[in-house]
Amino acid sequence: MFNNYFKTAWRNLLKYKLFSVINIAGLSVGITACLLILQYVSFHLSFDRFNVHANEIYRVTNDRYQNGKLIQHGTITYSGLGKAMQDDFPEVINHVRVEPAVGIMIKGDKKLGEQQGYAVDNSFLSMFSYPLIAGDKKNALTEPNTIILAETLARNLFKVQGNDFSTVVGQTMQKDNDPPYKITGICKDPPENSHLKFSYIFSYCTLYKTFGWKTSDYDFTDSDFWHYVQLKPGTNYKRLEAKLAAFSQRHFQGNKISGSEEKFFLQPLINAHLYSDYEYEIGTTTSARVVWSMVIIAALIILIAWINYVNLATAKAVERAREVGVRKVAGATKVQLIKQFLTESLLINLIALVAALILISLVQHPFNALIRQHLSLGYLFHNGLNGFNVISLLIALIVLSIFVSGFYPAFVLSSFRPIKVLKGKYFSSGKGTHLRQALVVFQFATTVALIIGSLVVYRQMRFISKQSLGINLSQVLIIKPPQLTQWDSTFIDRENALQNELKQISHVLNVANSGSVPGVEMSRSFDLSLVDGKNTEHYTTRRVGVSKEYIPVYDIKLLAGRNFDNTDYNPDPGKAHTVILNENVRKLLGFKTPQEAIGKRIHLQGRQWDVIGVIADFHQKSLRYPLEPLIMGPFFSTYSSLSVKVATKNIEQTMAAIKAKYDAFFPGNLFDYYFLDDKYNQQYADDVLFGKIFGIFSGLAVLIACLGLLGLSLYTTVQRTKEIGVRKVLGASVSNIVLLLSKDFIKLVLFAFIIASPVAWWVMNNWLNDFAYRINISAWVFVAAGLLAVVIALATISFQSVKAAIVNPVKSLRSE
To answer: Rounded to whole angstroms, how far apart are CA atoms 244 and 92?
Structure first.
């Protein structure tokens, strides 16, 4: 019986070739887009789920309030917090402290720079699932100056044959200028879906036993450490979180330590990648809003494709009415007819699935290049979707597709009464027409909303790229600090001498030294106040040490006072006493004008400072964040970077000359650099990617909707062939005919625009709220989207309408 259904379905596919192609094309593009998006979503939803204890691990976060205002929303906490929580709460069964480190790894003559690592407690190896290839995880990081290398770093430093790393364990190596480290283990490289990525981990006790970090063992005064805790299975972490207010009061009082009210929270590890809007983030993050937006777009695309099938199948119902009548007279039951039409739906969906798999194989590589990941259908099937098996989901999708796209047409077609059909009285009520109209409205409401969204994303990203930052980042080369050089009393003189030498190079315009560069998180101080002023409030400010060239290198506007000069710098940082404020600090402290602040004294970091200058505000971070108070001080450090302003000519020769000078002053250090504008713009990488993906898949949604509209216009034109002939005989022009055939569809598109506009405004306004500096959604965006939708619809409909309008009316009147 099924074989007969299949043969009949295949014959009907061939009989109605154009409609079959439109249906298959729409469904295949929809399935392709859906599966590509699900690959992207699967990757981001899978972060950290490879950890055996993923559902039991939480990181401790910290909010600080000063004068009733949130001043820090971060992931850094106090070194004693994890141990205290494990001691106080039976729900906490393990904890680990994590301190980021970026170092140069040295073995013999081989030096590898910019290696990301962490200082961790040995419990890290039992809490997280980073398996050791060699070594014993029970005690690998219990002693100071012990280190575990990730597989790739170990291969790059040592000549490892095959996978035998046992010869590496027990050897020693250098990290920066630290005392030698003993290698106690080799671990697998962290997977791509780990928010903690590292090339090495070393024992946390090294910080206080070797380097004398007095606050890094058990302390509640210095909050520069990251904590993860493991809870008993089944623990309600929200109930534990509610106890943290009393816990913090037992161990310390935030208003006495940092001058602010502090609140602690627990964030599930599996949320760390997607739901991190924290400062001082040490993991790999992206926006959950972006990921779930992609899920919604995938659902809308496949739904639009299904609607196409329903519309075209029900539109064809009249044409197939006689077929149904004959089958019923021949003895076919309603159930058999439904099975027949569902078989057709199955066949179309299976062909569309095969076509989609072929399309995916063709576009997978450019898609991976776009999202900068190595994804595939195999990856999707293996990793699943947030714990669900994707193969099962795909089968469910196909079954659902068959019933969603095939059941209603099958029900409609099988319901024709044979007597009326065979007499030619098979025109039903307007219910079917109204349904098709409603579905077209839904399709184009979706496409209009996506067009509006694409325009808003484009305008916001263009706004960001054109917005003045208050600093000039162009042609600034950042040379990373000489980490292998020890600090001594001669360092400032050497650094000044190097800067002067670099300035002598042709095409080097200026050189500055700074403890932080634009785009990098700066340190905070919480005790800013006026000395001998009426304002006794304490405030929080960012701070950075800079050389006197920093302000001119970045074209920062000096509003009042003077810049630093050589007399402001001292090898003993405790003797420095001058600072420069930005406008934000000036307003915070209550000075009415920049000039009024000059000569005043402020209290910061436990001592007093003289204000010598006020500069204009500039954006240290992306435009997602508001401008912050900033104080500059006259400090040098071996951890300070060089900002070199270069001309655009002869870049290669200039770079070679800069490297030669750097190597002469800091021999043995790695010459590592990057261009600042590229690095700064990486802050918007996720937003730019979101804009591209949003635009591409919105375009696909429009394409699928147009395929459906093309099919409906084609069918409508065929149904009205005689009417067109009569109207032409009576004198109707081609434009009259095109307008006649198009106006009903255009009305539907306009109605869709009215529905889509408020929905799109609400969604995109919420997205824009993530930016401190954003565009306003102008009315012209909606007008442009509406006009574009109408133009697209007209172009789609007119293709067939014009063709019908220019046909000789004699042929139209002869047709049956």
So the answer is: 12
3-state secondary structure 355-387: HHHHHHHHHHHHHHHHHCCCCCHHHHHHHCECC
Q: Which token pair is 649?
A: 């000519």
End-to-end CA distance of the chain: 34
Helix (H) or strand (E) holding 728: helix 721-729
Radius of gyration of the chain (CA): 34
Residue 118: CB atoms within 10 Å: 21
**For the chain, domain boundaries:** 54-271, 476-683
| Residue where the block lists tokens 């263009």 | 462
Token pair for 44: 């981001």
pLDDT tens, position by position, 259-280: 678 889 999 999 999 998 888 8
CA 651 and chain centroid, separation:
33
C-alpha to C-alpha distance for 612 and 77, rounded to whole angstroms: 34
> Which residues, other chains included, contact 611 with Cβ-Cβ below 8 Å and sequence gap of 6+?
561, 578, 579, 580, 581, 597, 598, 599, 600, 601, 602
What CA–CA distance (Å, rounded) separates 617 from 628?
A: 8
Q: Which residues pair with 510 in a beta bridge?
A: 645
Residue 612 and residue 580 in contact, taking contact as beta carbons nearer than 8 Å: yes
Contact of 193 with 49, CB cutoff 8 Å = yes
Percent of the chain surpassing pLDDT 90: 44
Mean of pLDDT values over 213-238: 90
Q: Name residues whose C-beta falls within 8 Å of residue 159's C-beta, 6 or more positions apart in sequence.
A: none
Q: Computed from CA positions of residues 767, 770, 775, 779, in that sequence, does the dihedral angle turn out positive or negative?
A: positive
Q: d(Cα 368, Cα 373) in Å, to the nearest integer?
A: 5
Q: State whether residue 697 is helix, strand or coil.
A: helix
pLDDT score of 411: 66
Contact yes or no for 50/121 (Cβ under 8 A):
no
- Distances 304 to 317, 351, 401, 441 between C-alpha atoms, Å: 20, 18, 11, 11
Contact 789, 752 (CB under 8 A): yes
Kind and range of the H or E run holding 549: none
